[in-house]
Amino acid sequence: MAGSWSRTFGIAKDSLREILSSKVNLFFMSFGLIVGICAMVSIYSLGKGAEITVYRILENLNFGSNAFLILAGGGKFFGPAATRMDRFKMEDEEAIERFDFVVEVSPVQLGFLSVASPKNAVNTRVLGVLPVYSRINNWGVWEGRFINHEDVRLKRKVCVLGYDTAKNLLGDDPIGKRVRINGVLFEVVGVLEKKGVIGRFHLDERVLIPLSTARDRIFNRDWLNAAKVLLKSNVDFKRAERAIRNLLRKRHNLLRNEPDDFRIITPDQVMEFLTKATRTLTALLLSISLITLVVSGVIIMNIMYAIVEEKKKIIALRKAYGATNRDILFHYTFMTAVVAFLGGTIGSSIGNAIVAVVSSYTPIDGYYSVAFSVLCVLVAVIASVLFGTAPAKEAAKLPPAEILR
Amino acid sequence: MVKIVEMRGVKKVYRTKAGEVEVLRGIDFEVNQGDFIAIMGPSGEGKSTLMNILGCLDRPTDGSYLFEGVDVTSLSDRELSRLRNRKIGFVFQQFHLIPWATALENVLLPMIYREGVRKEHVERAKELLERLGLGHRLAFKPSELSGGQQQRVAIARALIGRPSLLLADEPTGNLDASSSKEVMRVFQELNDSGVTIVMTTHDPETASFASKVKVIRNGRFVE
Ligand SMILES: Nc1ncnc2c1ncn2[C@@H]1O[C@H](COP(=O)(O)OP(=O)(O)OP(=O)(O)O)[C@@H](O)[C@H]1O
Ligand SMILES: [Mg+2]
SS in 3 state form for A266-288? Predict the structure, then answer.
């Protein structure tokens, strides 16, 4: 670098003292990098975290490779319904079940209702379901029994509580006790197995009642919110999806150019959504990092020019006392590297802190990558050093005679 | 007698947009070990220009310059850096101390470029500052020192590397009368202990401390 190690060390120390002596320069030089690296680290980590969250949700909903979901109302995957929802009827579900490639279908009516015991009251998701719900979602009872065919046939006012809701409303011994759902008394016959919190879904808070009871006594409507369809394992997925789509479009009397008034969510679609989201995120990340690096680089270059201009006499002094061109080049290159390292490290720390805060207040999983943070700092240092080369060279070629002008 | 500087016919021409300025027109100059020479002359006559060349901060346009017998006009920039570091000490009118460094650190600056600061350098720097009456100001920043004190720090810095030649361009130009005298007494003591000094000055009183006075006029020494 610049001769012996102890000489290099001396120059590095002098350089460090110089930049630390001007906190204003230090601040403005590192500010762009702090913001940019912070954005890069947090966007990358939150993107990764969101991806992990979605995968976990899908996995937990037992979204196997031969099942898919039909949602009432058209529109985009993962958004709210964009068309009216009341067209997806029980009869549609029965028609789907008649396809020979379909094993079974689990229809669901859904609402957010008050559920109360003498002890406590909560607002939570109430689902009208059939006995098949348990099998198709791979979700059994922890205590008591699940809703059975008799319950459905007789429109019994019985319910199965999610684990947390059971604890919350009735404590340790809920079976046989009664709760009011939307004011109607129900007998608790079972408690679901604990599943935990998956993203923003608190799975253990839901309450299940027979679909027939839900339709006629609670929601008083005949349309479904969703149905999960299980296919035979040897069928062509695409063809099955097309057949069901055509069936529903025909049953809903949709015109050729009218959009679907339902959504079929397949594992393929989920994957496609994820890859698209990841790709968009990567593109965003790339453009942000590029803009940031260029902007911070230009800022650093300009401040370095100003520093060199301001320190002309001191640079000439160092040269008068034996500093070579290379010594001065190293002096100012080291300075930009230190600033970039500081800015990058602070930026990635703040970025990771933002991830910690966001992930604790939202369903997004916290994701931290030391490798990515280190990479960001490294890129910041390299870019800054490149941008700082021109002013450092200018300093290096300053004539020592400048000292006596 | 040991010759330190031997200049023959040194010329310096500055090329500017406005044209060429011939500042030195043939300087013959010798400095022997133990000399204490004052260079005088009106403003703009080329005293600083000559100091630049003497200190190997700049190259003459023409003429020869031997420093301790070595032809410095043939040396590379790198070799000149090395020569300045080992052989020459500088004192400036504006002191030129590094503002964020302490007095001690300022004195040690040349040692960075002599393959790093070592323990014996620190000891010597302290000794020098003590000898110059600044033993109690080692950790002071330049802004916390008076002009005379700053110039004494600069003198210590010039001496830390045991140079063959001490060059001072108007060392008292920024000092009041009493500080000037103080600094000149230091120079005289140094010269008495064997340090070779060349300085420029406008002030006859300052010049009176030197053992020889040379005057520049029209780019030449007047005899
Ligand atoms: N780098 C330069 N480029 C062009 N002209 C210069 C340069 N340095 C000095 N000069 C010119 O050379 C002449 C001598 O300048 P110099 O600084 O050597 O004078 P000086 O005798 O030291 O004056 P003073 O007593 O005011 O310090 C001046 O006319 C000045 O304008
Ligand atoms: Mg001058």
Answer: CHHHHHHHHHHHHHHHHHHHHHH
